[in-house]
Automatic annotation (TrEMBL):
<dbReference type="Pfam" id="PF02581">
    <property type="entry name" value="TMP-TENI"/>
</dbReference>
<feature type="binding site">
    <location>
        <position position="109"/>
    </location>
    <ligand>
        <name>4-amino-2-methyl-5-(diphosphooxymethyl)pyrimidine</name>
    </ligand>
</feature>
<dbReference type="InterPro" id="IPR022998">
    <property type="entry name" value="ThiamineP_synth_TenI"/>
</dbReference>
<feature type="binding site">
    <location>
        <position position="90"/>
    </location>
    <ligand>
        <name>Mg(2+)</name>
    </ligand>
</feature>
<comment type="pathway">
    <text>Cofactor biosynthesis; thiamine diphosphate biosynthesis; thiamine phosphate from 4-amino-2-methyl-5-diphosphomethylpyrimidine and 4-methyl-5-(2-phosphoethyl)-thiazole: step 1/1.</text>
</comment>
<dbReference type="InterPro" id="IPR034291">
    <property type="entry name" value="TMP_synthase"/>
</dbReference>
<keyword id="KW-0460">Magnesium</keyword>
<feature type="binding site">
    <location>
        <begin position="135"/>
        <end position="137"/>
    </location>
    <ligand>
        <name>2-[(2R,5Z)-2-carboxy-4-methylthiazol-5(2H)-ylidene]ethyl phosphate</name>
    </ligand>
</feature>
<keyword id="KW-0808">Transferase</keyword>
<feature type="binding site">
    <location>
        <position position="70"/>
    </location>
    <ligand>
        <name>4-amino-2-methyl-5-(diphosphooxymethyl)pyrimidine</name>
    </ligand>
</feature>
<feature type="binding site">
    <location>
        <position position="166"/>
    </location>
    <ligand>
        <name>2-[(2R,5Z)-2-carboxy-4-methylthiazol-5(2H)-ylidene]ethyl phosphate</name>
    </ligand>
</feature>
<dbReference type="GO" id="GO:0004789">
    <property type="term" value="F:thiamine-phosphate diphosphorylase activity"/>
</dbReference>
<feature type="binding site">
    <location>
        <begin position="37"/>
        <end position="41"/>
    </location>
    <ligand>
        <name>4-amino-2-methyl-5-(diphosphooxymethyl)pyrimidine</name>
    </ligand>
</feature>
<comment type="function">
    <text>Condenses 4-methyl-5-(beta-hydroxyethyl)thiazole monophosphate (THZ-P) and 2-methyl-4-amino-5-hydroxymethyl pyrimidine pyrophosphate (HMP-PP) to form thiamine monophosphate (TMP).</text>
</comment>
<dbReference type="InterPro" id="IPR013785">
    <property type="entry name" value="Aldolase_TIM"/>
</dbReference>
<feature type="binding site">
    <location>
        <position position="138"/>
    </location>
    <ligand>
        <name>4-amino-2-methyl-5-(diphosphooxymethyl)pyrimidine</name>
    </ligand>
</feature>
<keyword id="KW-0784">Thiamine biosynthesis</keyword>
């Protein structure tokens, strides 16, 4: 597998957002450092998820950036994405690995060392770990684990750890110090007045 990008931009498809404009802006700054994860609302149809993924893939191709699909691995495969991301309500990691095959990029959500170890043993290529901080993007999450919680997972696995949840450029140094390989964001880029600038600040914090 080529090296994983360090900035994961998760599409924001809430009403009033323009996910493709945000992805376009982020790509002009982050290039191949960007992983775009296509995440749609649960109420979206597979056709909508597929169409958005195809459009994101077309944008990513010009920058050699990676495109993954959240939850819906059949959409990932049908659209030609590099892989997908699963959590507790999705296919189990071992089943997801069978769907994607040995070379697909497979992310799994984990919040603690035990489940993290199990996810890697079952075939996860990377882990999404959080929520690290309070987020308003997703409801129903457990309490934030903070950088110390990230460190506990990092110490338990040998795959890249992507910190998620309330991540901002200002919070990246502490997450990197805790061993995070990269970060995943929705709001920090999607709700920024200038998404390209917000992306640049995140990349700077991730690579300095
Ligand atoms: C990089 C990354 N980490 C965690 C998640 C969350 O996945 P999940 O727990 O399945 O929740 P939903 O995103 O499906 O609501 C993620 N998507 N990406
Ligand atoms: C999908 C998801 N899973 C844990 S936090 C989160 C949302 C992260 O969004 P933001 O970067 O706006 O906090
Ligand atoms: Mg999920």
């Amino acid at each position: 597998m080529p090296s994983l990008g360090r900035l994961h931009l998760i599409t924001d498809t809430r009403p009033g957002r323009d996910p493709l404009a945000v992805v376009r802006a982020a790509l002009t700054v982050a290039h191949a450092n960007l992983v775009v994860q296509v995440r749609v609302e649960d109420s979206a149809t597979d056709r909508e998820a597929y169409d958005l993924t195809r459009r994101v893939l077309a944008l990513c191709a010009s920058y050699q950036a990676t495109c993954l699909v959240n939850d819906r691995l059949h959409v990932a495969l049908a659209a030609g994405a590099a892989g997908g991301h699963v959590g507790a309500d999705d296919l189990p990691v071992a089943a997801a690995r069978r769907v994607l095959g040995p070379t697909g990029v497979l992310g799994a959500t984990a919040r603690a060392p035990g489940p993290a170890h199990e996810a890697v043993a079952a075939g996860a290529s990377y882990l999404g770990v959080g929520p690290c901080h309070t987020t308003s993007t997703k409801t129903g999450l457990p309490d934030p684990i903070g950088p110390a919680g990230v460190r506990a997972v990092v110490d338990a696995v040998d795959v890249p750890v992507i910190a998620i949840g309330g991540v901002t450029a200002a919070r990246v140094p502490a997450l990197r110090a805790a061993g995070a390989y990269g970060v995943a964001v929705v709001g920090a880029v999607s709700t920024a007045a200038d998404p390209a600038r917000a992306t640049a600040e995140l990349i700077e914090a991730l690579t300095c």
